UniProtKB/TrEMBL annotation:
Domain of life: Eukaryota
Protein name from the UniProt record: Uncharacterized protein C9orf114
Family: Belongs to the class IV-like SAM-binding methyltransferase superfamily.
Low complexity bias spans: 261-277
Region spans: Disordered: 240-277
Gene3D superfamilies associated with the record: 3.40.1280.10
Organism: Lygus hesperus (Western plant bug)
Length: 277
């Protein structure tokens, strides 16, 4: 009797897995059809507004434990993903680095700004790229306890999608001068150009199949198909640089222009030293 129940459970799981696979394929075909309609249309897609938020690094200055500080940073990342924020800016609201010499120790608020920027970048990055982009260190030791954002660009190996995030490998097609990119699939994808190894890029996969793709702007999935593709992480050296951003959703003063390059502005963690709260 137990064996019969095991077989029933196995068949049920197989049926559910097949159903999920069919749903992914249907979603992929729908997205592909929408993309073809946009490409064939003579009209340019309507320019979509972008949303940016600014977070003061001092919010973690008085948090007692590093675990709790990591949890707070995780909640900020989750809120940004839920409300489809395009850019998260971490800034030093205390101007703690003003008048600090190079040989002097960094103030706590500035160190916390660097640390929070790293955590936000880590959580936004797809899981299959974190090993390549984020080396093991003290800053990330509690980040693994946080729930994943599960945004559309956080794809699994079996997921079907027109776009994928990837990291440029050292492997290059010498004749065509084209780089290979790891995008979380069994085979690496060869893109249409040669880029510096270690950079994070957005790849549009060839609809005909095979390991071919095109490096595109990280804003293209949203501007073309309306798919939220995560947030960028900015880290201005001073609060005065936030004057370029206007409150509200002014069409004359958008939070930030979309990047024209295919590489992510925050493709690598902040290079400054940091210490957790």
């Amino acid at each position: 009797m137990a064996l019969k129940n095991d077989k029933l459970d196995w068949r049920t799981l197989k049926t559910q897995k097949k159903k999920r696979k069919l749903e992914q394929v249907e979603k992929y075909l729908e997205t592909k059809k929408k993309l073809e309609i946009v490409e064939q249309s003579d009209e340019k897609p309507a320019k979509k507004s972008s949303l940016a938020i600014a977070i003061a690094g001092s919010i973690v200055d008085n948090i007692q434990t590093e675990e709790l500080a990591t949890y707070v940073a995780g909640q900020i990342a989750r809120a940004a993903a839920i409300y489809k924020v395009d850019e998260v800016i971490v800034f030093d609201d205390t101007c703690s680095t003003a008048g600090i010499g190079k040989d002097q120790e960094e103030p706590q608020t500035w160190s916390n700004c660097v640390w929070m920027a790293k955590i936000l970048q880590y959580l936004e990055c797809p899981q299959y790229l974190r090993k390549q982009l984020f080396p093991l260190g003290r800053d990330y030791r509690y980040a693994g306890l946080l729930n994943p954002l599960d945004t559309p660009h956080h794809l699994r190996r079996e997921s079907v999608s027109v776009y994928r995030e990837g990291v440029v490998l050292e492997k290059v097609h010498t004749q065509l001068q084209q780089s290979y990119v790891f995008v979380g699939l069994e085979e690496d994808v060869r893109i249409d150009r040669q880029l510096e190894p270690g950079l994070r890029v957005t790849v549009k996969l060839n609809p005909d199949g095979g390991n071919r793709g095109t490096a595109v702007s990280p804003r293209e999935p949203k501007s073309t198909l309306g798919i939220y593709w995560g947030y960028e992480n900015s880290f201005p050296p001073s609060a005065s640089e936030l004057r370029a951003y206007r409150s509200g959703q002014s069409k004359k003063n958008p939070p930030s222009p979309p990047p024209s390059d295919c590489c992510h502005p925050s493709s690598s963690p902040a290079s400054s030293s940091s210490s957790s709260s």
